[in-house]
Amino acid sequence: MAATEEQRKAHIALAKAIWHQDAGNSVPSDPKARQDAFQLVKKDLMKRARKLEVLLDRLGYEIAPKS
Questions:
Q1: Residue 56: pLDDT above 70?
Q2: Of 2, 13, 14, 43, which sits with the fewest C-beta atoms within 10 Å of its C-beta?
Q3: What is the value of pTM for the model shown?
């Protein structure tokens, strides 16, 4: 089943948060370099984000955007 646009945005945001935690201080400060570095690992991080969302759902939690 394909993710909705809202779910996709949540997965990308979660993937970026995971990337920042994993990369720590090695995240490039230049926006273009940062975007390129994220694109290299995006596929794997999106998979981790989806798995994390399923796990949280099983535990009774939900990822929701700030209003």
A1: yes
A2: 2
A3: 0.82
